[in-house]
Amino acid sequence: MKKITLTLAIALGVSSLFAQDKKVMGKIVIMYSQKKFENAKTEIDKLIADPTNATSPELWMWKSTVDAEFLNSEELKAKCADCLNSSFDAFKKYEALESNLKTASEAPFTWRSLGILYDKFYSLAVTQYNDKNFVAASETLDKVAYFSKIITKKDLKKNGGGLDTLPMRLAAGAAEQAKDIKKALYYYSIIADAKYGGADDINMYKFILYNYSDLKDKANFEKYFAIAQEKYPNENLDDYKLDFISKNLSLDEKVALFDSEDAKGTLSAGAYMNYGDMFINLKKDEKAAVETNAAKRTMLHTKGREAFRKAYTKNNDVLAGFNVGVLYFNEFNDLDDQRNENVKAMQALNTNKVVEKDPKKKAAADAKLKEQLDAIRKTNAEIETKIEIAADNAIEWLEKTFNTLKDKTDKSKTEKSSYKNDVKFLGALCEHKREKAKAKNSKVYDEFDAKSKKYYEIYDKL
Question: Phi and psi (nearest 5°) for 162?
């Protein structure tokens, strides 16, 4: 990075002098022009000590400039250990009194202290960063970035006021290393606002998106998501959008958004996978919200299964297909549990029925028991139908996974785990189908008996 060297033009006149100290100020100008910085500093510090001079922009500009000169001299800097900070503080006080920085731009100052301070703070920050003192580096780079903004605003580099991204990147990087995410976002956002960044800078935009999502900052997330899409049209940023949705939208809002985007037909396979995960793997607060709402849980599982199915259709993602099969298998188990509970309820009714000796009371009690049992039998008949549909669908989708992975020699860790569960579930489902065909259809029985044994044998070897 080029160091900023700002021209120092010495003028023997002063634009405005203190009425009570014109001679002293004149002396300071002469001392400064003759590079008698120690003498100039002594006179300036005397004036600074007088509270009546505290509102003079020019005096604070002198303080910043002369203290900065000490930093440039090997001999003098040892005599003023705090000149780096005192010069910076003086410049800030000057700016507070004269926001247009007119005096700083004019002779004899002509941005002299700004140039020196920028270079010194920059060098210090690099040393601190290399020493992994990231908190200190971050604080120092705040000062570098502060001056960089002035350099850009005043076009001191004569480049049309183009943003110097390096100090902003360094400030953001140090803040990130110091775990000050909000500060890192502040500096990265300045760069993104100017739409800077090349092919290697996509990670900066991803950092911005991820952390604005984490902070639940919808306005900034949407702003920088649009900029990132504009700059990187070939980059898939769906995961970041869906991360924001997952963290910040209610379940009802997620479902409504999914239905809306699904209807447009523009969702990618990855987006469908993420939606499926959102609907199935609920967050703790979401689980609590639907704990007693069976209809809503069923709706979410149906939505999740549909999302995974469409992800599979988009690109034959084997894991998406496996998820569909698992969800049907879970439905099969849930329905089977319901049926078994109903059977237990019928057994309890029969066990606990009151034996009436009076014929009229007995007839009424038997009729009531029959009514209760018939209602449960009817429910179970409906459940039986649903169980077989769920079993058939589960087998269909799990066999898709089996056929894709059975001969694959380089399975990933996830694929290996999925394959093992896949054959285990298929073994159980085929065993169920075998027992349903028992004494009814020997051909079907034999078919599922063979399948069940095959899948269990594979499972035992894994």
Answer: -65, 140
Cα 337 to Cα 136, 340, 378, 386, distances in angstroms: 61, 5, 16, 12
Three-state SS sequence of 65-113: HHHHHHHCCHHHHCCCCCHHHHHHHHHHHHHHHCCCCHHHHCCCCCCHH
- Sort 385 into a burial class: Cβ within 10 Å, 0-12 / 13-18 / 19+: exposed
* 3-state class percentages of the chain: helix first, strand second, coil last, to nearest 5: 75, 0, 25
CA 298/CA 205 separation, integer angstroms: 37
3-state secondary structure of 386: helix
pLDDT digits (tens, 9 = 90+) for 417-455: 999 999 999 999 999 999 999 989 999 999 999 999 999
Dist CA 162 CA 166 (whole Å)? 12
In the prediction, which pLDDT does 22 show? Answer: 66
- Interatomic CA distance for residues 427 and 450, integer angstroms: 10
pLDDT tens, 118-158? 999 999 999 999 999 999 999 999 999 999 999 999 989 88
Q: Residue 228, exposed/middle/buried by CB under 10 A (0-12, 13-18, 19+)?
A: buried
Q: For the chain, which residues make up each domain, given as ranges?
A: 249-315, 316-461
Give the Cα separation of 278 and 267 in Å (integer). Answer: 15
In angstroms, rounded to a whole number, what is the distance separating the alpha carbons of residues 183 and 177? 11
pTM reported for the whole predicted model? 0.72
